[in-house]
Design brief:
alpha/beta, Rossmann fold, 2 domains, 7-stranded mixed sheet, 12 helices, 7 strands, 51% helix
Length: 295
């Protein structure tokens, strides 16, 4: 018989693994009237650091799981299955075990599900460089949720009321693409900035990040306000200005030849986005593909 977990309004919570997202999620739950029964981690120092931050004791994983209605696995992706296996025999029926990995659904939690636990994958779409920043940024962020159908309402309420987030249901088989979208966006923005900074540095600009930062903020604001990145593409590639791109390439070859290939790669990405969203005339697209070596 499938056991329905306790209502997600006042849960006893155990944190196993003191990663950034797990620790931040535990703290947000604590602030929203959930009880932290304890924390355990791979090393005593990380467990003690998280316990001090969260104001809860360090306890053995088996003890923490036995006392909890919700178990948060704040461990690296490759350790999720092992962690689930370690705690499985201590679970009470209906205890929910969650991990925070983006690319995986509930499959790595099979050992916990097999012994009466309920399982969910909760992945926040947010950049969390440290615990304090994660606590600031997670409220208002989207969370990719994968769980059994009868647990969806429970998980949605936990994210809304306990984490102040936006739940988005993601099918098990779609998790890799969910994660790919998040990684491409986050790392892609950083990579674009890094290339622009390198180009400015090649002409002696001392603080390229200060120059490009407001531009990046404005571009992101435009996308959020006006229908997304595809709808707000602009610039010489989108306008089909092949001579301008040729001038860029000539200058790079003369002054920063090591940046030619990165520039062309990024320009081909912009060209593909412009073509995919219908911004380009066929003749302009053909000329640009020829210049940039696109197939």
């Amino acid at each position: 018989m499938i056991t329905i977990p306790a209502e997600p309004s006042h849960l006893s919570v155990f944190l196993f693994g003191a990663g950034r997202v797990g620790t931040a999620a535990a703290e947000l739950l604590r602030r929203n009237d959930h009880e932290l029964v304890g924390v355990a981690s791979r090393t005593p120092s990380s467990a003690e650091r998280a316990a001090r931050f969260l104001g809860c004791p360090v306890i053995p994983p088996e003890e923490g799981v036995a006392a909890a209605e919700l178990v948060l696995l704040g461990v690296p992706d490759e350790a999720i299955a092992d962690a689930a296996g370690r705690i499985a025999t201590s679970l009470h029926a209906g205890t929910v075990v969650c991990h925070f990995a983006g690319a995986f659904g509930v499959d790595p939690l099979t050992a916990a599900a097999g012994l009466g636990g309920r399982t969910a994958a909760l992945h926040p779409v947010q950049a969390c460089p440290d615990v304090a920043t994660a606590i600031e940024r997670l409220p208002g962020s989207a969370w990719g949720v994968t769980c059994a159908a009868d647990l969806e309402e429970w998980a949605e309420e936990l994210i809304r009321s306990g984490l102040s987030g936006l739940p988005v249901m993601v099918a098990e088989e779609a998790r890799p693409l969910w994660h790919a979208a998040a990684v491409t966006t986050s790392n892609g923005i950083a990579a674009l900035l890094a290339l622009g900074e390198a180009i400015l540095a090649s002409i002696g600009v001392d603080s390229p990040a200060a120059v490009l930062g407001p531009l990046a903020e404005g571009t992101l604001a435009n996308a959020l306000d006006d229908g997304g990145g595809g709808a707000t593409l602009t610039g010489p590639i989108v306008r089909g200005e092949t001579p301008t791109i040729a001038r860029h390439l000539a200058a790079l070859r003369a002054h920063a030849p090591h940046l030619v290939d990165p520039y062309m790669t990024m320009s081909r990405t912009i060209l593909a986005a412009a073509a995919r969203t219908g911004h380009l005339q066929a003749d302009d697209e053909s000329e640009l593909r020829s210049l940039l070596g696109s197939s």
